[in-house]
Amino acid sequence: KNEVEQSPQNLTAQEGEFITINCSYSVGISALHWLQQHPGGGIVSLFMLSSGKKKHGRLIATINIQEKHSSLHITASHPRDSAVYICAVFTDKLIFGTGTRLQVFP
Amino acid sequence: NAGVTQTPKFQVLKTGQSMTLQCAQDMNHEYMSWYRQDPGMGLRLIHYSVGAGITDQGEVPNGYNVSRSTTEDFPLRLLSAAPSQTSVYFCASSYDGTSQPQHFGDGTRLSIL
Q1: How far is B79 from chain A (nearest CA, A)?
Q2: CA-CA distance, A93 to B3, in Å (whole number)?
Q3: Per residue, what are the HEC states of A58-103?
Q4: Cβ A96–B104 below 8 Å, yes or no?
Q5: CB of B39 within 8 Å of any CB in chain A?
Q6: With an 8 Å Cβ cutoff, is B10 touching chain A?
Q7: Nearest to B62 by CA among B42, B39, B24, B36
Q8: Using one digit for the tens of pLDDT, what is the confidence trace for A64-97?
């Protein structure tokens, strides 16, 4: 069993929809990262959080340390949000989930 | 501000050839790391370095070698390429490598024939 599980693996949405991507982990962590990988392959760090909630524009990330679960929400989704979203947890190293592929259609 | 620069972006090798993937960062980050990304799997750590002169193995180090002679550069060497090393390779850096945001290069797509 992977130490970091993401769901769903694939997600399609219509422009404007509210999107939720989930990440569950089974190890003790000091931080959790959400990353975005564009179709061209580049990886960008979206959030790093160890408790509570963070917001940046239309993106919101939450984490529940007790339940070992994090969610990434996208409000008013747009086709430019189409990408792979990756959850990674930091123990003594980064452990990555396999990613959620999101496609947003106009 | 260049960030993390990886070269080359694409490379095709024959089995048994050797090559070096270059990674450079201009943010004065102490922590640098190399990952490989394969279909259906999360990024996996190959080697990492917590500062100049210090390197250590990650999850999948076999067949790869690294060195860190300067803070800026962290090259990854394939000693004798094998088809199993066909992958996309990412270099990343961060301020201290513990829980700070990671900055990634654009990746190197490597095919071994």
Answers
A1: 25
A2: 21
A3: CEEEEEECCCCEEEEEECCCCHHHCEEEEEEEECCCEEECCCEEEE
A4: no
A5: no
A6: no
A7: B36
A8: 999 999 999 999 999 999 999 999 998 878 889 9
Residues in chain A within 8 Å Cβ distance of B103: 45
pLDDT tens-digit series, residues B90-110: 999 998 766 677 899 999 999
CA-nearest of A19, B99, A28 to A7 is A19
**Using only C-alpha atoms, what is the Rg of chain B?**
13
Average pLDDT over residues A3-24: 97
Candidates B102, B96, B99; CA nearest to B23 is B102
* Rounded Cα gap, residues B112 and B27, in angstroms: 32
The single-letter DSSP state of residue A32 is: E
Our CA-based measurement puts residue A33 at a distance from the nearest CA of chain B, in whole angstroms, of 8
CA distance B62 to A4: 23
Contacts of B104 in chain A (CB under 8 A): 35, 42-45
Listed by number, the residues of chain A in 26-45 with a beta carbon closer than 8 Å to a beta carbon of chain B are 30-31, 33, 35, 40-45
Is residue B1's pLDDT more than 80?
Answer: no
Q: Which residues of chain B are within 8 Å of residue A31 when distances are taken between CB atoms? A: 99
Residue B43 pLDDT exceeds 70: yes
User: Does residue B48 contact residue B56 with C-beta atoms inside 8 Å?
Assistant: yes
| Close Cβ partners of A92 (under 8 Å, ≥ 6 residues apart) | none
